[in-house]
Amino acid sequence: MDKIKVLNGRRYDIGLTLSNGTERVVKRDSFVLLPIEEIEYLAGVAPKLFTGERQLRLEDRALAVELGFIADTASPLFGEAEIRKQLAGRVQQAKAWLDSVQAPYLLDEVYAIAMTMDLPASKLQLLQEKMPDREMLQTMEPS
After folding, report:
1. CA–CA gap between residue 55 and residue 57 (Å, rounded)
2. Helix (H, G, I), strand (E, B) or coil at 26
3. Which of 3, 41, 62, 78 has the maximal Cβ count within 10 Å?
4. Does residue 102 contact residue 95 with C-beta atoms inside 8 Å?
5. Residues with Cβ < 8 Å from 68, sequence gap 6 or more?
6. How far from 81 is each of 85, 110, 137, CA to CA, in Å?
7. pLDDT tens-digit readout, 16-52
């Protein structure tokens, strides 16, 4: 039985209960090996775990497409490297990307990464508009 690498690129652990009742934890920035049957079972009982690869993702992106988790193998990743890349891009591109981010846990991830970057005021303003409950502009001096 072939096993598929299931990756967790989030900043938190994700617990899974497999079809036989066994519990597994996918540690943050780690992976577990699972048979395809277990992945299909998990996707059936908790579809948001894999949909859009926003929680867990398969190392085999072609299989992820086949199972309907992503539209195509070029679908963007939401890991730290991708978030940094998007925030480092042009303001309009960052805005368009940020508009596509809706899930609260992803916004938390974007916020945590953005606070470690030296972003210009224009991008901090975009983040503030997207997440008004967060303090993005505390380091800016009044103009």
Report:
1. 7
2. strand
3. 78
4. no
5. none
6. 6, 11, 23
7. 999 999 999 999 889 999 999 999 999 999 998 998 8
Residue among 117, 122, 116, 119 nearest 91 (CA): 122
Closest to 31 measured CA to CA, from 41, 22, 39: 39
CA-CA distance, 22 to 98, in Å (whole number)? 37
Counting Cα atoms < 13 Å in the Cβ hemisphere of 118 gives: 0
Q: At what angle do helices 121-130 and 104-114 cross, to 10 degrees?
A: 160
Cα–Cα dist 30/9, whole Å: 7
Q: What is the pLDDT of residues 8-18, one digit of tens each?
A: 988 889 999 99
Position 127 scores a pLDDT of: 92
Residue 134, φ and ψ in degrees, nearest 5: -105, 150
Both structure tokens of 109: 């991830």
pTM above 0.90, yes or no: no
